[in-house]
Amino acid sequence: QISNHMATAELQALDADHHMHPFSTQAGFKTKGARVITRASGTRLWDSEGNEILDAMAGLWCVNIGYGRDELAEVAYRQMKELPYYNTFFQTTHVPVIALSARLAELAPGDLNHVFYAGSGSEANDTNIRMVRFYWAQKGKPDKNIIISRKNGYHGSTLGAMSLGGMSGMHAQGGVVQNVHHIDQPNWWAEGGDMTPEEFGLERAQQLEKAILELGEDRVAAFIAEPIQGAGGVIVPPETYWPEIKRICDKYEILLIADEVICGFGRTGQWFGSQTVGIQPHIMTIAKGLSSGYAPIGGSIVCDEVAEVVGSGEFNHGYTYAGHPVSAAVALENLRILDEEKIIETAREQIAPYLKQQFEALVDHPMVGEAKIVGHMGSIALTPNKETRAKFAAEAGTVGYICRERCFANNLIMRHVGDRMIISPPLVFTRDDVDLLISRARKSLDEAYAKVKAEG
Ligand code: PLP
Q1: Does the keyword Transferase apply (predicted)?
Q2: In ligand 1, which atom is closest to the CA atom of 120?
Q3: Mutate which of 61, 117, 122 to test ligand 1's pocket (most atoms within 8 Å of Cβ)?
Q4: pTM of the shown model
Q5: Is the reported ipTM for this assembly greater than 0.90?
Q6: Which of 139, 186, 222, 411 places its Cα 20 to 30 Å from the Cα of 150?
Q7: Cα dist. 403→128, 187, 253, 335 in Å?
């Protein structure tokens, strides 16, 4: 029987033979096996060789309350025994979904009072594409169906969500849906040139207005963006950016969709990233931190007016696992823990200032050009020349990959996006965790720097 007790090499060989990894070159697993993660607790993972690893990514930006909370396991067990599955199609509902929806309506800002569930963030964004088009069609404007989003934005991997996203490598593999338009991201460090961050933030936001005028006000249905772009490199926008985006959406009656899949549930220091950047969206996409990753669940939280218009007709859309009772019960328990244990406030007030001070000090490393963090999501930009903000001679991402490998070897999970290194730790990170993160990150940066210098 295949179990944790098998030799690592045997598990790796079976994995390479039969399991296709996401976002990976499969052939690599034959020569270098995947690390087998066997258990987790708090902010730490253990692999099959017994190594203890500090997880500064909270899995895939999702394990906000940390690993190993028995309460969630117990709630899932009880819910599986009582009602393991039912759906909310065709005039049925169930208590976990009722309770979770009411709680989300309380937590979400303004009149975001209605939840349409999905199994993941990608599915929720597919819902959003269909929902905003249906909304405008219901209002007699079926041609108002173009959605504007941003280059390097990430909104998921399904055809619809991938199309909303602005990842050129994903688009190049085909299948992009029609009527999605991308504007540039507000990445001041890489693209700001001689402009101040404030000027640059305005310039990038005004690209939205230009796009609306070019495409036609009566054609643009919505603008979607992450409050702070995550998988695109944790790009913290200049302060002028979001107020200008908001002004433009209001002026042209464009629905604003905040993709809160990463930013939601405390990652930026508030319940939602929209609150941190000061916007009131019409729709928010949620997933990940909603259940701290313990069970798959996502959704769209929708404002009163949009819900009313969409609800006035039959919106032919829904997923078998939408609002799954076990996932909903787990999510509700996760929200209870976040709230009652004051995890978001504690993270914001007691840990985030120290994390910021330590993390942003990495900018003194010879290979780091920028280090920025908001709440518990941050990134550093790697460069061979801080003054000119130059790119490395090697293909983009090569040095980032080397750094990630060094972190991995030093039992630290950080991620690289091109030549940026990212963190998104669990919100239960302690000061000791911060110290360990920084010492392992510095060691890994030093090793990568030595390798890059040696290889020219
Ligand atoms: N939206 C954002 C901002 C994300 O970061 C992600 C995943 O990383 C998604 C959507 C897709 O979510 P999922 O992987 O649950 O489909």
Answers
A1: yes
A2: 15
A3: 122
A4: 0.98
A5: yes
A6: 139
A7: 36, 21, 44, 35
